[in-house]
UniProtKB/TrEMBL annotation:
<keyword id="KW-0479">Metal-binding</keyword>
<comment type="function">
    <text>Involved in the regulation of shoot development and salicylic acid (SA) homeostasis.</text>
</comment>
<comment type="similarity">
    <text>Belongs to the iron/ascorbate-dependent oxidoreductase family.</text>
</comment>
<dbReference type="GO" id="GO:0005634">
    <property type="term" value="C:nucleus"/>
</dbReference>
<feature type="compositionally biased region" description="Pro residues">
    <location>
        <begin position="1"/>
        <end position="18"/>
    </location>
</feature>
<dbReference type="GO" id="GO:0005737">
    <property type="term" value="C:cytoplasm"/>
</dbReference>
<keyword id="KW-0560">Oxidoreductase</keyword>
<feature type="compositionally biased region" description="Polar residues">
    <location>
        <begin position="21"/>
        <end position="30"/>
    </location>
</feature>
<protein>
    <submittedName>
        <fullName>Protein DMR6-LIKE OXYGENASE 2-like isoform X1</fullName>
    </submittedName>
</protein>
<keyword id="KW-0539">Nucleus</keyword>
<keyword id="KW-0408">Iron</keyword>
<dbReference type="GO" id="GO:0016491">
    <property type="term" value="F:oxidoreductase activity"/>
</dbReference>
<dbReference type="InterPro" id="IPR005123">
    <property type="entry name" value="Oxoglu/Fe-dep_dioxygenase_dom"/>
</dbReference>
<dbReference type="GO" id="GO:0046872">
    <property type="term" value="F:metal ion binding"/>
</dbReference>
<dbReference type="InterPro" id="IPR050295">
    <property type="entry name" value="Plant_2OG-oxidoreductases"/>
</dbReference>
<feature type="domain" description="Fe2OG dioxygenase">
    <location>
        <begin position="205"/>
        <end position="308"/>
    </location>
</feature>
<dbReference type="InterPro" id="IPR027443">
    <property type="entry name" value="IPNS-like_sf"/>
</dbReference>
């Protein structure tokens, strides 16, 4: 008997690539797919000018090992950088090059896995301790960003993907080193604000601080003038410590202009986050920054966020509130703040709106 004749059906289209890396690897792209175009391809006049400006630099060795006078000078410089920029470079930090390189290599090896292997960690919830994905949050993004990411909680409990095998031990050492550096920087920042270290450590439960490692990869883009790696946003924690693979692309907003960041060799980039703005009662504001893409090279960065413990209610330090400086923010549990920020669209500093008591 002849087989039955089945009704004609249209071919089922292949699903879109699940990551930017897969998209760029699987096709010869001549243009940016429409879902990634954040600017009108007919005109690029909406691109804001970018300026060059010297970034504040903090000598970490003088903060930790200098004379009292040298430390005092660095603390003043650190406070000025937080107040004027919300951003600075750290040199002479003591974190060895072999560890920085090993962390970059291990992160690259994760992104070089197949989509099936990485897909095991595709995030179901914004607070999953290991989360792989693309853009920022596809459930709410109105346009896709030219970026894939891996987010891993590393403190107070260390998590790690199973592959590559080296990831756990390298990330453990790297997280401990950057956390120690972050705590020393926070000591200097508290001092610059006139706050006692022990008081702030207790108030924010920094011994059980939340620390997350975020690997970002930005593959070459055929029309970088139309797409963006990440739009202007602030970070949710106290400090973010950034390591790059030698390909620049970070820009920070200062006094209404975008500044292109070109770090010194062997330095780390550090920016203040939303919880720093809250605890300082608005004196040290979280900085807006964004990630641009290029057509030639893959940019990779590893951000380490150092933040209060998830159960801490973060509010302005009482010493920074008074008749001349009214309370600017209400208290909110940091875990709740983080979940809200990660679950909504990435838009400037809108995550601070629910805790803000006065309009800027």
């Amino acid at each position: 008997m002849a087989p039955p004749i089945l009704p004609h059906t249209a071919p089922i289209p292949s699903p879109p690539p699940s990551s930017v890396k897969e998209l760029t690897n699987s096709t010869s792209l001549g243009s940016v797919p429409p879902q990634y175009a954040i600017r009108n391809p007919e005109t690029t006049m909406d691109i804001e000018p970018i300026i060059e400006e010297e970034i504040p630099t903090v000598d970490f060795s003088l903060l930790t090992e200098g004379t009292p006078e040298q430390r005092s000078q660095v603390v003043r410089h650190l406070g000025k950088a937080c107040e004027d920029w919300g951003f600075f470079m750290v040199v002479n930090h003591g974190i060895p090059e072999r560890l920085r390189e090993a962390m970059l290599i291990s992160m690259k090896e994760f992104f070089d896995q197949t989509e099936e292997e990485k897909g095991e960690y595709t995030g179901k919830h914004v607070m999953d301790p290991i989360r792989y994905g693309t853009s920022f949050n596809l459930t709410v993004d109105d346009v896709r960003y030219w970026r894939d990411y891996l987010k891993v909680f590393v403190h107070p409990i260390l998590y790690s993907p199973a592959k590559p095998p080296s990831f756990r031990e390298i990330s453990k050492e790297y997280a401990a080193s950057t956390r120690a550096m972050g705590m020393e920087l926070l000591r200097g920042i508290w001092e610059s604000l006139g706050l006692e270290e022990n008081d702030m450590t207790k108030a924010l439960d920094l011994h059980s601080c939340y620390q997350v490692l975020v690997g970002n990869i930005y593959p070459p883009c055929p029309q970088p003038e139309l797409a963006i790696g990440l739009p202007a946003h602030s970070d949710h924690g106290l400090l973010t410590i950034l390591l790059q693979n030698g390909v620049n692309g970070l820009q920070v907003k200062r006094r209404g202009s975008w500044v292109r960041v070109e770090p010194l060799p062997n330095s780390f980039l550090v920016n203040t986050g939303d919880q720093m703005e809250v605890v300082s009662n608005g004196r040290y504001k979280s900085v807006l920054h964004r990630a641009e893409v290029n057509s030639q090279s893959t940019r990779m960065s590893i951000a380490t966020v150092v933040a209060p413990s998830l159960d801490t209610i973060v509010e302005p330090a009482s010493q920074l509130v008074g008749d001349e400086h009214p309370m600017m923010f209400r208290g909110m549990r940091y875990g709740e703040y983080l979940e809200c920020q990660q679950a909504t669209r990435l838009k400037a500093k809108s995550a601070l709106d629910p805790v803000r008591l006065h309009a800027e």
